[in-house]
Design brief:
This protein is an alpha/beta fold. It has a single domain (2-182), classed as Formyl transferase, N-terminal domain (Rossmann fold). The protein has 6 helices and 7 strands. The chain has helices spanning 9-18, 37-44, 60-72, 90-96, 116-123, 158-182; strands spanning 2-3, 29-32, 48-51, 79-81, 100-104, 127-134, 144-151. A 7-stranded mixed sheet has the order 3-2-1-4-5-6-7. Helix 2 (37-44) links the parallel strand 2 (29-32) and strand 3.
């Protein structure tokens, strides 16, 4: 199960990988919080879609409950937040914590939040990257599962740097989900260990 809010390039990369045997996972649905290109990408691959609009609910807690109900209908083994631009709160995580992961365009714990790429550029770092982590009730604070570095190039803009990060992020997401499905990465609350991939 994938959650996305925007263009959906990460989601489509995972959908395409999952359609190729012997990839060990399949995508059962894609959910969004708004009209998004990601929904159209999923439909082109005959993936079920749904949208849970925040404005249809009186508050954040109720929206989280609505999202949890929509996700639960597909009985996923894993929820992948891939460019999903809303914080998953306690009512959602009461059901799905320990089986929800998130992609983030920075090397956490550096530059958490919605503007990781912009914040890395503003800080003047020479290297940033991307992270996949478990989702907990903080903001980008869950256990790190995988990280890859991306050098910052002279003259980079937020858009150019983010595009290079997304190229790396797509490959990392595909390999991380496969490792979870194969049991090489064990999420919190499940037996085994947690694997952290940090390139040299």
């Amino acid at each position: 199960m994938i959650l996305a809010s925007g263009a959906g390039s990460l989601a489509e990369a995972l959908i395409e990988a999952a359609a190729q045997p012997p990839y060990p996972a399949r995508v059962v649905a894609l959910g969004a919080d708004r009209p998004a290109e990601a929904l159209e990408r999923a439909r082109r691959h005959s993936i079920a879609t749904f949208t849970v609009f925040p404005n249809d609910f009186p508050g954040r807690q109720e929206w989280n409950l609505g999202l949890a109900a929509a996700v639960r209908a597909f009985a996923p083994d894993l929820v992948v937040s891939a460019g999903f631009m809303r914080i998953l709160g306690k009512p959602f995580l009461d059901r799905f914590e320990g089986m929800t992961i998130n992609t983030h365009p920075a090397l956490l714990p550096a530059f958490p939040g919605a503007h990781g790429v912009r914040d890395a550029l503003a800080a003047g770092v020479s290297v940033t990257g991307c992270t996949i982590h478990e989702v907990d009730q903080g903001v980008d604070t869950g256990p790190i599962l995988a990280q890859r570095e991306v050098p910052v190039q002279q003259g980079d803009t937020e858009a150019s740097l983010h595009e290079r990060i997304k190229e790396v992020e797509r490959a990392m997401l595909i390999s991380t989900v496969a490792a979870i499905a194969d049991g090489a990465i064990q999420l919190r609350g499940r037996p085994g260990h947690t694997y952290q991939e940090v390139p040299q």
